[in-house]
Amino acid sequence: MKRRTLQVWLLGFLLLAVGPASAVLEVTVTEGVTGAIPVAVTPFAWEGPGSASEDVGQIVGANLVRSGLFDVLARERLPQAPDGPDGFLAERWAAVGAEYLVTGRMRPEEDRVLIEFHVFDVLANQRLGGFRIPVPAEMLRRGAHRVSDIVYEQITGDKGAFSARIAYVGVTGQGDERRFTLEVADSDGANPRTLFRSNQPIMSPEWAPDGRDLVYVSFENRRSEVFRHNVETGARSRLAGFSGINSAPTWSPDGKRLALSLSRDGTPNIYVMDLESGGLTQVTRSNSIDTEPAWSPDGEVLYFTSDRAGSPQIYQMRLPSGTAQRLTFEGSSAGAATVSPDGKSLVYVQGGEGGLRLARLDLETRRVTLLTRGRYDKSPSFAPNGSMIIYSTTDRGRGILGSVSRDGRVHQRLAARSGEVREPAWSPL
Amino acid sequence: MNATIRWGLVLLMAGLLAACAQPKRDLTETERQAMEVAAAEAEAAEQARREAEARGLGVDRDLRADPLDDPQSPLAERLVYFDFDRDTVRSEFIPMLEAHSRYLSQNPGARLRLEGHTDERGTREYNLALGERRAQAVRRIMNLNGARDTQLDVVSYGEEMPVAFTQTEESWARNRRVELVYDVRR
After folding, report:
1. Is the dihedral of CA A237, A239, A244, A247 positive or negative?
2. Distance between CA atoms of A209 and A206, rounded to whole angstroms?
3. Which residue in the set B124, B129, B157 is minimally distant from A289, CB to CB?
4. What pLDDT does B116 receive?
5. Buried (b) or exposed (e) across B34-43, using 16+ Cβ within 10 A?
6. Which residues fall within 8 angstroms of residue B7, CB to CB, at 6 or more apart?
7. Which of B83, B86, B114, B125 should we substitute to test contact with A (largest number of A Cβ atoms within 10 Å)?
8. Topology of domain A165-426, per CATH?
9. How far apart are CA A427 and CA B12, in angstroms?
10. How confident is the model at residue A23 (pLDDT cuts 50, 70, 90)?
11. Is A73 in contact with A93 (CB distance < 8 Å)?
């Protein structure tokens, strides 16, 4: 962690052209790490008329706690914060037990707010860095997530993923009153926006690598079809409506192709669609179920689920169309693989006596580690920094989201205040 | 629908039709014929209702006797259930599927949608494929028994449309199903 001079981060924010929210998520950390790092985050002073629209210090603190790696000190225990880079007295912060200090202030400038903040290493008695972030005034909350990303990176050395968003499917009502929505929210569940509503099921949302589009499966025409939906403009088009099922779409890392599972020729096989020409290349040719494709970060390997050996298991295939190699042998079934951003491991759903749980497969050592202990843990999606996996689970029969750190030690739940939520997909950064 | 209400609606519609038409012009020949046909049909329905009541049958029965509506017929059965992660049609469902196949071969205009479903134990996209495989297994049996391919539509909903919501073997068994849905009945 090196000392830095004052830096200016310019942020490009995306405006979401979307409707009002329906499924607001509430986050609870259910299991953290013992020996989490104690951090003090002061309230960010507002240097303008009135008061700030968001409590940025509080949002940053909550994000750090949510990562499971940090303990944030209660505000009433904090001594007076320094205004700026100077006046930092390490012993005062050490006395309250803080190992790191984050302090900041905000100044409105026309339609922007300038957030300035500093990160101090209390034990080393030094400033790690100072930063200035201009954000559109109405996006102060997203500014707070960017601050969190930088603080996280300053302290841990790894990129933060707090400013990434999550897409998920919301379900309300029962029977003929069941309604399905496609939602996009901040990583902490705040600011949910409904992109699409239907009285027919919605499945399998996945982000484009540029974070501007989603692909998903909608049954609005009484059958599974694949749609592309721009989260900024709301523009929407059908990408696959072949006979049979159209499912499990996932964008290639270069954003130019889509892997998906189609049963147009009788049984579900993996295909790759060129998004510009719409041309299809068939990747697998089996009479079994081949579905749930996932790309390696270099775009050269596809991982997918197949029941060609009897039970569903995960296979890998080098593109364009090599031979499939089986990767999973533990448990009674395996499926829905998601690839870590570094390409070194898969997280997937393992079936066994206890139900469905998430497991991580190290692609080099082939070692398998169980990450969760639920009975219906499904649809895993890696955070763009690889630190956590978000997934679908249930709480007393109700669908909620869970997240688990890559090592399986930190667990959280994200539940909607009403209705069910499922199939989360973490956006790129 | 109760036949008395149906009769009332016909009269109401005929009245409305007449009321709309009158200020502008006399009824066209087609409209007049349509009204006569409607009136005659209503008359026939009412007559049938009286006869049915005389025979002791319920008034809700459509007396043009569609065998699909006969609760005693195997055609009243529209659900095929499956074992976990299997698409094999169990022998107990074969007579029912034979009856539907016969009905389809006798009614070439009829169209049947086969909706495949699964329980929640399995990954979602795999389940979508499994639901399709179950519906296809039902289609093969119906093809062999005389239903034409053009009469059968296979759709899968995977685990997305459960009918039972508890996390028990009983609920899962009810959700692992193919539903037979007549889009066109004859």
Report:
1. negative
2. 9
3. B129
4. 98
5. ebeebeeebe
6. B42, B45, B46
7. B125
8. Neuraminidase (2.120.10)
9. 58
10. low
11. no
Rounded-to-5 percentages of helix, strand, coil across chain B:
55, 15, 35
Model ipTM?
0.89
pLDDT score of A35: 74
Q: Where in chain A is the domain with CATH 2.120.10.30?
A: 165-426
DSSP state of A224: -
- Looking at residue A56, its pLDDT comes to 96
> Is B23's pLDDT higher than 50?
no
> Which residues in B lie closer than 8 A to residue A203 (C-beta atoms)?
124-125, 128, 158, 160
Q: What is the mean pLDDT of residues B132-137?
A: 98
pLDDT value at position A63?
93
Helix axes B3-21, B29-55, angle to 10 degrees: 170
> CB neighbours of A136 closer than 8 A, spacing ≥ 6?
A13, A111, A112, A113
Facing residues of A115 across strands? A106, A133
CA–CA dist B86, B82 (Å, integer): 6
Q: What is the DSSP string of A175-209?
A: GGG-EEEEEEEETTS-S-EEEEEESS-EEEEEE-T
Contacts of B35 (CB under 8 A, 6+ apart): B14, B17, B18, B27
Q: Name beta bridge partners: A172.
A: A179
pLDDT number for residue A6 = 35
Q: Which residue has the tokens 């698409």?
A: B87
| Ranges in chain A annotated CATH 3.40.50.10070 | 32-156
Gap from A160 CA to chain B (nearest CA, Å): 29
Higher pLDDT, A139 or A11: A139
Of B85, B133, B157, which has the smallest distance from its Cβ to A201's Cβ? Answer: B157
Residue with tokens 């053009």: B150
Task: Assign a CATH topology to domain A32-156.
Answer: Rossmann fold (3.40.50)
Written as six digits, the tokens of A317 are: 């295939």
